[in-house]
Amino acid sequence: MTLELIIRRAQLYRFLADAFLYPTENWLEDLPPLHAILFDLGLDDFQPPEFDYPLPVLQEEHRRAFGLTGSLSYETEYGLTYEFRQSQEMADIAGFYYAFGFRPGGARHERPDHLGLQLEFLYVLSLKEAAAAEQRIEEHVEVCIEARKSFLNDHLGRWIDLLAEGVARGASLTTGQGPDTTPYVWLARLAAGFVRADAQSLGVTPQVLLRRETAPTPLPVDISCETCPVAE
């Protein structure tokens, strides 16, 4: 892959990482430059429709798509029925981050398994790969590529399709609207298509989670909706 395409890949991972977080700025304003990036990466089928949403409406769409808890956005919420399994997966994800000096921070803190952080990590890997390629340090390029392969195979590539399916299903149930008619349905479809394409370019075929094989992670026994203030 050329240096220009590596940078394009990094740009798209960065855009997605920011767009999936609860919006404090209107990311729809960043869509015009995205057309060229998608075209260069061979993702022209995912070009965005025309969206005209002010920020408060976009925030409402985020709440509708992901709910108050945002559980769709967390890898370990997909069928890990034992707490120690969640801890193991979290530790494995955090190990990837630590190995490459990725230290999530800022005003909005998220768990390591959050979609936004996983996308941001792949952005960081792509930037490191671009820097190594520019300096012609092939060993460092290979390290970044191998890390991307492993992360897509073991983590993001396994569950991104479930997220896209869940967002689309939620939109059809709450609004009765079809594919790509809301920003987050389109965004999730783009993310899933991009991750699949990235994995395929690396010769990676993740063992994709299927909805029938997963179940919502149960709440601890000491948690009850009856005590929730919202229930009143």
**Low-confidence blocks of residues:** 228-232
Rounded to the nearest angstrom, the distance between the terminal CA atoms is 56 Å
| Alpha plus pi helix count | 7
- pLDDT averaged over residues: 87
User: What level of helicity do the residues show?
Assistant: 55-70%
Helix-strand pattern: HHHHHHH
CATH architecture: Orthogonal Bundle
**What does the overall shape look like?**
globular
For the sheet with most strands, the description reads:
none
**Name of the CATH homologous superfamily:** TorD-like
Q: Care to count the β-strands?
A: 0
Number of domains: 1
Structural class: mainly alpha
Radius of gyration: 18 Å
CATH class: Mainly Alpha
CATH topology: the name is: TorD-like
Fraction in beta strands: under 5%
What does this structure look like?
With 232 residues, the protein is mainly α. The chain has a single domain (3-231), classed as TorD-like, CATH 1.10.3480. Helix content is 57%, strand content 0%. It contains seven helices and no strands. The chain has helices spanning 3-19, 31-40, 55-66, 83-99, 115-134, 138-174, 183-201. Helix 5 packs antiparallel against helix 6 (138-174). It starts with a helix and ends in a 31-residue tail after the last helix. 31% of the residues are buried.
Topology:
Layout: H1 3-19, H2 31-40, H3 55-66, H4 83-99, H5 115-134, H6 138-174, H7 183-201
Helix pairs in contact: 1-2, 1-5, 5-6, 6-7
